[in-house]
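Appendix B. Chain record.
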Amino acid sequence: MQEPQVPGKRPNARDRIMRAAEALFAERGFEATSIGEIALRAHVNRALLYYYFEHKEDLYHQLLQEGVEKLRATVLTAINTTSSAHDAIRVFLQGYLQIAHHNPGLVRIVYREIVGAQRGDQESQSLVRQFMQTIAQMEQVIRRGVQNGELVPHDTGKSVYLLLGMVNVFVTLTYLEQVSYPTDEIVDHIMYVFFHGLGKD
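Structure tokens predicted for this chain:
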């Protein structure tokens, strides 16, 4: 069903629709965005949009699924790349910030759905469960760090949210275009705070 990608060719119609929807849903939310506006921004007609997506809800859920799958892939890469919790967390942070850099609207949509339960239908609830399962996998990395002596014993369930909170602040600032730091600089700072703290002995 998808059009073939040709090197140097503009993104195919489905990709253009997805990216247009990402931008509009992030800017306005689900209810305030119309199919017509998405088609206009993607430079396609409505018939082509409906060829790829049954309705607006279908398009929205596919965007959410894309966001959760990108996050899951980043976590799995971190888990499978190294046995070191320190290195795995660095890989995760770098991957997550790359997602946020290339798809800032996508990150905003996913977190809006999870935090605000915007839709609350069965598909959205399923995506929230997938997201929480992915976070649980990331917690296993932190727990591994405790087991192998890289981190002191502590509540790893809280620490995984602390880790996400730190990185999401920078993601939010970048999205709002208030301030933007180089990825390596952000990763280095979070790694230092997470593994060494800021308190003076």
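Further analysis of this model is presented in Appendix C.
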